[in-house]
Write a structure and sequence with these properties.
The chain is mainly alpha-helical. It is 60% helix and 2% strand. It contains 21 helices and five strands. It has a three-stranded antiparallel β-sheet with strand order 1-3-2. It has a two-stranded antiparallel ribbon with strand order 4-5. The longest helix has 27 residues. The chain starts with 13 loop residues before the first strand and ends in an 11-residue tail after the last helix. The N terminus is likely disordered.
Length: 516
């Protein structure tokens, strides 16, 4: 009974629940009839709930009577709005008959379409029609609109959705009949309802009002810009989850940031802007939602926009895979830097230095160079899916150690830059672990080469510092026994360069540093 009391600030008003009980109508029907203009609430409470007065209750009671006579909502609203027609039952019956005529015309339009098809096509069309009668389709659309939007404060979005309840035109084309049937099926499948709710909730969170013609034109131009960029990338064979997609994402974000589609405070490309754009696209570019608007265009006789669902999926995938500028390239850029740094040491190594000893037991400088080439070959081959058939004991240097290293390093980089490679499974580990493994091997053996050549061992300090916890994770539990591949951890001063600490953890004795 608590909902039946009258609002103290506005006497003789009732809540939507109380009005529903007074009129015998479901709450969702009262809400929907309010949305389409059959009755208007006289106000809202501080909490945003609708209130109705005596006149509103009277309109609802009469609207229910007219509906029971078979009138549609549009006709009911027109009859109630006529100053001289509220009590004219005869006029109401006429309008009810007109509603029946419209239903018959719908059947007529479907049957006429059937006559223009082959027997097989006609039977399929009749079967689709039999699944839902015109009245059932209208009720389905009504429930869809009511349940989807609820009390969300999205008036402009609500107005667009209400167009979905329109009947077929007086003399529909075959395409419009097909669209009308498909609309009912699309709503009945259930996917559209949840997709539209997500979009409506997103619109409500953004607090968007009705768009003027300028905003609409801007949105169309923005859509043309980003879809053109994405289509160009797709034609070029750029995978959405590859680092190469980052440049496309950056271009799209640059066009999106200054537009009115950006309802956030983001002013520069970054994680925040990409997250917001991804959320927006995910809500707006769902295939079911896109098809819904296309069908409404067909029913309204308007040009149907070109579908962008495929482009939307590509861009949302690219945004998820590249959540910040350069995010996917970070590991590969680090590897490239280490390869280049070690490559400089390789180029600085002369043949007459090949016989020098190294920190690796029983390895000469030449053996170490050969192993550096092998590391690129083995990890790049695994990433490519074609591991080498020869073993690490084979000669991989040939007569040109520089060319051998640079070729193997380039092949490894190309293998690691394959679309999706960083997240692909290689046994129990993702592809990024292969990149990290090669990077660590090159860092450590680069340290070995620098020490053997008496050159500066402090290679890529930032990368080495970041690699130290990864090295401890990779090798911390391995046994350090005689005959093993890793010697016992050696001491290193706390203030020692990061790569010295990595080398000491992997069993290298750290030489005293010179004064340079």
């Amino acid at each position: 009974m608590e909902h039946m009391h009258m609002d103290d600030s506005s006497p003789s008003t009732w809540s939507i629940g109380a009005v529903a009980r007074m009129t015998g109508l479901p709450v969702k029907v009262v809400r929907h009839w309010s949305d389409v203009g059959v009755v208007a609430p006289v106000g809202r409470t501080a909490g945003g709930y609708r209130r109705y007065d005596t006149a509103g209750v009277a309109r609802l009671q009469l609207a229910r009577t007219l509906r029971d006579l078979g009138m549609g909502l549009g006709d009911i609203r027109a009859a109630l709005d006529r100053e001289d027609g509220l009590t004219e039952v005869a006029a109401a019956h006429v309008e009810a008959l007109e509603a029946q005529i419209r239903r018959l015309r719908t059947h007529q339009a479907v049957l006429r379409t059937v006559t223009r098809r082959t027997t097989h096509e006609g039977l399929a069309l009749m079967t689709r029609t039999a699944h839902l009668s015109p009245d059932e389709r209208r009720e389905l659309v009504h429930d869809f609109l009511t349940d989807t939007l609820g009390d969300l404060d999205v008036p402009h979005f609500r107005e667009g959705l209400l167009a979905a309840g329109a009947d077929l035109p007086e003399d529909p084309t075959d395409e419009q009949v097909e669209a009308w049937l498909e609309l009912g099926e699309l709503i009945a499948e259930g996917e559209l309802r949840s997709a539209m709710q997500r979009f409506a909730e997103y619109a409500a969170r953004q607090g968007r009002g009705a768009q003027d013609s300028g905003a609409g034109e801007e949105m169309r131009a923005l859509t043309e810009t980003w879809t053109a960029r994405v289509r160009e990338a797709m034609r070029a064979g750029i995978a959405a989850d590859s680092p190469a997609a980052d440049q496309v994402v950056a271009a799209v974000v640059a066009a999106w940031l200054p537009s009115r589609a950006n309802a956030s405070a983001a002013t520069a490309d970054g994680a925040e802007a990409r997250t917001l754009l991804c959320e927006q696209l995910t809500a707006a570019a769902e295939p079911a939602v896109e098809r819904f608007w296309q069908l409404l265009c067909v029913l309204g006789g308007r040009p149907v926009p070109v579908g962008i669902a495929e482009e939307g999926r590509w861009l949302t995938t690219a945004l998820c895979a590249n959540p910040a500028p350069g995010a996917r390239d970070a590991r590969l850029e680090a590897l490239t830097r280490v390869q280049d740094t070690v490559g400089a040491l390789v180029r600085a190594t002369a043949p007459h230095q090949f016989d020098r000893p190294t920190s690796c037991t029983d390895w000469t400088v030449r053996d170490l160079l050969d192993h550096l080439v092998w590391e690129n070959i083995i990890w790049g081959g695994l990433a490519q899916g074609t591991p080498p058939t020869d073993g690490h004991a084979e000669d991989h240097l040939g007569h040109d150690h520089i060319a051998a290293f640079e070729t193997a390093a380039a092949d490894a980089r190309a293998a690691f830059r394959q679309p999706g490679m960083l997240d692909r499974s290689f046994g129990p580990a993702p592809g990024r672990r292969l990149v990290e493994q090669l990077l660590i091997e090159l860092l450590v053996h680069g340290w070995d080469l620098a020490a053997a050549l008496d050159r500066d061992r402090d290679l890529e300090p930032d990368i080495a510092r970041a690699a130290l916890p990864v090295v401890r994770e990779f090798y911390g539990d391995l046994p350090r026994t005689a005959g093993g591949s890793i010697a016992s951890t050696q001491p290193a001063p706390d203030h020692a360069p990061a790569l010295d600490q990595v080398a000491a953890f992997l069993g290298r004795r750290i030489p005293h540093r010179s004064g340079r």
